[in-house]
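Deliverable D4.2, example record:
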Amino acid sequence: MVKYEFKGIEAIDGFSMGLGGIAGGQCEDDVANSFQLPGFVRLDAMAAYKWALG
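Output generated by the structure prediction step:
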């Protein structure tokens, strides 16, 4: 995962974003190998904001 924190810009200081992914290949679904599941790609994204309380 890649994460970027915005710093130095007062309006968005404390804001961060991230992006990552995973890929899986074709695999058998059961012990008898009667059929296969296709490969897949998954993309994950995140956004966060942190601020001081008190």
